[in-house]
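Here is an idea for our session: we take a single protein and study its fold together. To get us started, please write out a protein record for me. Start from the sequence, derive the backbone structure tokens from it, and show both lines together. Go ahead whenever you are ready, and we will take it from there:
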Amino acid sequence: MPRVLGHTPAWLSRPSPGYHLFEPTPSKTQALVRKHESSGLRQPIATRDSEIFVAVGLEIRWADLAQLKEDDAPRYRKLAVSLPLPIERLTISPAGDYLAVSTSHTVHVVSLPDSSLLNTDDQSPIRPKTFQVGPLAHVLEESPIASILWHPLGYRDRCLVTITLEGVVRLWEINRADRSSFSEPTLSIDLIKLATAEDYGHDLSASQYGASKGFSVDMADLEVASACFGDSPDQEGVHGWAPMTLWIATVAGEVYALCPLLPSRWQLSESPGNLTLLQTLVSSIDINYADVSDSQEATAYEKATAANQLSWKSDIIYQEPLEEVLPNGDTIKVFPRPASVPAIPLLQGPFTMKPDVDDFELSDMVVYSLKTFSEGEEDGDVAEGLPAAVICLLTDTCQVHVCFDAKGVEGKWLPLDGDEYTLEPGDHNLIVAETITMVDNAASSSKQSITPDVHTDFSFFVSHNSGVYYISLESWIRKLEIELSNPTHEGTTYRLRTLLTETNTKVEQCIRRQPKDTAKEVTSCVVIEDGIVGYLLLTTLDNEPQAVTFDAPEDGLSASDAFAGHELGYSPSEVRELWNPRKELWETFDLYAALNIPNRHKNFLKDEIRLSPANLELLMNAHRVLSTHTDRLQHAVSDLFNRCQRLQEEYRDQILRVSQLAPKIDAVTGDDEEDLEISGSARMEERLRRVKAKQEALNARYQALRRKAASINTPQISEKESAFTAELQTLESSLDSTKQTLTDDVDGIEIPAWQRLDNIKNTKASLAKEVEKAIQTNGMNGGQTTTRVNVPSQSRKLESEQVQKMLQHQTDLLEATTNRLRDFGIVIPNASVEGGG
């Protein structure tokens, strides 16, 4: 998990305007609103860059987090939208111009105003244009809404996908100029009908409003819990089938897929991700068609599927797309939906999980497409890629099953009415690589959700009533992508088995909630990354904001590497959330509004108190309301008392730690030694000065060595080296006649040095011969010549004087020693020492 910098900041805490953005509006009268139980966790927050849209009851509030953080007088605006039920979900379109609002049974689309309206002084509510989607399809009498999504390939990002709890999928290609686009979907699919259909001979669309419905066993198995698309087409390396695949998770714990699910018009923008999307899509279809055509074991359905994929691809490739320029300057290519195959694809699934896991129910899911795009080895080769994916399933007991789909989901269709081949059951397995348990022995609940991380792939947050958890699969998914993008046949099975068995998923809890807060309303979280706001996780607990600020990893650095860097470096102490007083201690309490007195009994409050059943019921209701309120006050006060006691204990612990740390600091600063002339900060400054001086000396020495090394390594020689080289050349030419040149003149003598050297060598040789001859001549005569050495008389006199001086010195030493011994009382006879020479 990225390093936590802090928890709920001051600009989101009470009494700042950021806190009041999430606070419900107090009302003395209770609205006559029917309450419906939500099928999952509420998603009351949606973001557009640094802007935030918050659903509070029946209201939608709009603010800019950057203004809430930095402006002196921040403000927010209200969007006046008429809604019949409390808001359950908010979803922003990819282009950021529409807001999909979902209640328990209805869906609405709000045309968002321009961001400049937040900078005005006008505080009146904004009344944007609002359209109800499916006024006859999404009503109270029909199935509740399970999920709303924006299609990633929708034309101008205006294709809304709604999925009901009973398994009805509808595509709405909305257009403000055409009101009928909000009334009738361009495509509707009944998953229960599609699951039992064998061909397109039956009507597979959703039943009309008011039509009778028969019971089917598949109705319980196809109760939708969540849905999502494979991945975003803007990411480079995503396979072409991924953004066209709608993954569906049912409450019963089964996973299905619809591929390809396209609106009548879909678009691709000019981005590297969309280019690789088409390349992988075309190469995958061509390779599959070639393999099936050459295989003798291929069934009739497999051959028909490969042929349908090829014709479906031809409709896309060989039709000229319509190019449009958006108002922001981007260019898009608009494609019509291929007409050679039916618009409703085959419902693939339920997929089998291997190895088997215990029975569970699903609450939410998220799917990541593996980036296995690889260029061809040669210029003429096509780019390839696998439609593999990682599916993360969130169970009702707060467990996450991480499943690996190695085969991938491809486009498939039912047989047409009259085709000779029949539908064959497929064997599609999901490999359960890891099961992550976040809460031990958690109770079954659907109030939990998954929020993908906006900073890194394969990372997401799980919202639960016990807190918010961060899960990152990036450390081992990247290795899996490399293995699949550069396959080697030798040892592939062993490497994949080792990789899947040694998964190292990081799981940490970034928001902790007290056990007493589990009964409060918890909502799904959102992740925001902005230059001013920072890397922020935001959620609400009982209509109060809770946030965590993270330290965003550097661009190009994976989350795992950044996490390892924090471990190697300085690790600060744990950042704890600041305590805020509970709202029971400061919120106003209106007893009159809480009693909910009927209108016919309100006049009794002005009369005298009489013993009557109506007054008795009123007193009992007042006692019940007051007892509940006082109980909440008692719990709030007890919590405050416990916090104060904890604060005192922590202060004592801090004082103890400081007392233990003080002697160590004194030992470093020298305050523990009294005889030092310099102590305290002066000693540390003196030591720092010496260290700096030593560092400067080392730096100067290093620079000198560096300059010397730089001069040695240069190809040019210095002046001294060139002079020494010239001297050596001159000396060589003067000593060797073969090296002599016409311009050589060493010492200005007519006879060169080498000739003089030869003359000396010849003279030496001749003298040596003469000496040998003289020795031989004396030896032949047999006589030996005795030479008498005559010593001069002067030398003999000098030697005699030196001997006399030495004898006199010895005599003086002997006399001095004798006198000293006599002084000590030792009797020594007289003796005379004479010397001569």
User: Anything to note?
Assistant: The first helix runs from residue 17 to 20. Residues 586-698 form one domain.
